[in-house]
TrEMBL record:
A single GO cellular-component term on record: chloroplast
Organism: Pisum sativum (Garden pea)
GO molecular function per UniProt: acyl carrier activity; fatty acyl-[ACP] hydrolase activity
CDD domains, per database record: 4HBT
One Pfam family it belongs to: Acyl-ACP_TE_C
Residue stretches spanning the membrane: none
Enzyme class, broadest EC rank: hydrolase
Protein family according to the UniProt entry: Belongs to the acyl-ACP thioesterase family.
Name recorded for this polypeptide: Acyl-[acyl-carrier-protein] hydrolase
Amino acid sequence: MAAVTNFTYSASPFLVRCCSMKENHHEQLNGNSSIRMNGSFRSPIKVESLSQTAEAAPTTLVENGQRQNIPTKKQLVDSHRQGLIVGVGYRQTVVIRSYEVGPDKTATLESILNLLQETALNHVWMSGLLSDGFGATHGMMKNDLIWVVSRMQVLIDYYPIWGEVLEIDTWVGASGKNGMRRDWLIRSQATGQIFARATSTWVMMNRKTRRLSKMPEEVREELAPWFISNQAIKEDAPEKIVKLNKEAKYTNSNLKPKRSDLDMNQHVNNVKYLRWMLETIPDQILESHQLSGIILEYRKECGSSDIVESLCEPEEDEIVVNGIIEPDYCTNLINGLSLASSDIINGGGVLSYLEHRPMKYTHLLQAKGEKQNEEIVRGKTTWKRKFTTCPFST
């Protein structure tokens, strides 16, 4: 029968089981005898040393009241995150992991959005402005304020592949009187090839009332030294997204957030919104096309008790060609809307033009209500044909 010995490790006990085959078991452990392991002889571990090690261990994981050890001053280099401050911007080196890619071994859009969020938070971390909130500064925490994104746009030329090393640059700038703009640039570390660009607009919300708030002067003073005017995506006027109605072509109803979908601010993470939107895209499109652009306009936060409906409408009528959904370009050609395209004039021909013309969808996520539904996010996605070969050497 196995003898059971209890050792106490700080506040929590753990169990060590020792099989006693002979009466002189402890004498053998304390002696100079050796144990054969994988063909070689090694000295046995003494039970006393385990007890001594356990007693010497710290009593808590928190040191000086702060596990995270958030910097209180600007840090130029962070070796753990492979990041550094460049001017007032931030650059981080990342490797695409196996769990960040899809069946085609390229990074998913969800993974890219997660990387954008992570580098943004690390930028605030290294600036010395981060308090204990989700990207909130010290001044924001004093005023019970949190960041919420109001608009985001991502343009993707090429998707990174599994194992590829990327450099992600991010920086911030002013957006009106009370908002902040954050931009990103994703490139290949090996070639410098730009993979994706992104821009976003952020506003402040009171953590208790859940109402939007003006930017306090002390917060403005914290952020202003980090503002620059560069833009990853230049827009003369933001593209407006129309509101869909219940007659949308594709719908997915009764979507319920899970606990794992909530972020540190206790509302559904924006990456989850994207997943709900993409689930309404026809399978044929997902197999033959890849998303090249997305615009998201956030209207209302989504909580754990909300029941969500996802609506999707193609911008053009669709037809089926060889089992694949395609936009009804013929109607547009007949109406003279596309005959002036440079792809046709320059000799690419109508078939080449139809092959490479992107497809666009309008999206809406809304929370179901007893009297009326409430908008959560409006979106627009652009899709282009997948590359059969890598467009450039890596």
